[in-house]
Amino acid sequence: MDTLERLTSARIIPVVVVDDVAHAVPLARALVAGGIPVAEVTFRTAAAPDVIRAMAQEVPEILVGAGTVLNAGQVDQAADAGAQFIVSPGFLPSVVERAKERGLIVVPGAVTPSEIMAALEAGLSIVKFFPANVYGGVDAIAALGAPFGGVKFVPTGGVSSANLGEYLALPNVIAVGGTWMVKPALIRAGDFVAVENLSREAVASIAN
C-alpha cells in the first residue's frame, strides 16, 4: 500500500498539535492502537520537526505527515524529519512544487472554484477543504462535486464525532481531518488512554 492509499484508507486524519517531543511516541502508539495509523503533525509549534522524526523512527506503523505547512522551507524541514505527506491550509504553488520535488504527497487547502482549478492545473486531484464549517460544510462539498467530478476533498475544521458520518457519506470525500480524538489538553496531560479510546470510537462509528 502506497502513501496515498494509506492516507485515504484510514478515512480519519488526526490533526495533532504537540508542544513536547516526549509525547510524540506515546501519542503515535495510542493512535495506532485505536485504529487510526495516521498523524498530521502541525507546524504550529517549534517541536513539530522533532515530533515527526520521533514518530517516524520509533513507530513505523504510523503514517506521519506535516500540517499547517506555510512555505517551502517547512516542506524541507518536514521531509528531512521523515514526513510522508504535506498538508497546507491554502494553495501556494511554491509549497506544492517543493513537496513534489521531495517526493511527498501534498494536500493543499482549496475551497473556492478558482483555488480548486489552480490545484487541478498543478496536477493535483485531492485538496483540503478548510475550514469546512465556515465554508459551507457538507452542502458546499456536495455542490462542488458537480463541476469538479474528479476532485476529492479532505474536509477539516469543525469536523467532529457528531458530523463525521455526514462528511464521509459524500462520494467526493475520501477522508476527514479532525482534532477531537487528539485534543491538545489530552496530549499535554499525557492522557493517551483517552486518545486511544476516542480513536477507537471514531473508527467504530464509520464501520457501522
UniProtKB/TrEMBL annotation:
Pathway in which the depicted protein is active: Carbohydrate acid metabolism; 2-dehydro-3-deoxy-D-gluconate degradation; D-glyceraldehyde 3-phosphate and pyruvate from 2-dehydro-3-deoxy-D-gluconate: step 2/2
Ranges that cross the membrane: none
InterPro entries: Aldlse_KDPG_KHG, Aldolase_TIM, KDPG/KHG_AS_1, KDPG/KHG_AS_2
EC number: 4.1.2.14
Keywords: Carbohydrate metabolism, Lyase, Schiff base
Catalytic activity: 2-dehydro-3-deoxy-6-phospho-D-gluconate = D-glyceraldehyde 3-phosphate + pyruvate
SUPFAM superfamilies attached to this UniProt entry: Aldolase (SSF51569)
One MF term in the entry's GO annotations: 2-dehydro-3-deoxy-phosphogluconate aldolase activity
Matching Gene3D superfamilies: Aldolase class I
Family recorded in the similarity comment: Belongs to the KHG/KDPG aldolase family.
Annotated PANTHER family: 2-DEHYDRO-3-DEOXY-6-PHOSPHOGALACTONATE ALDOLASE-RELATED (PTHR30246:SF1), 2-KETO-3-DEOXY-6-PHOSPHOGLUCONATE ALDOLASE (PTHR30246)
Complexes and interactors: Homotrimer.
Name of the protein: 2-dehydro-3-deoxy-phosphogluconate aldolase
Organism of this sequence: Tessaracoccus defluvii
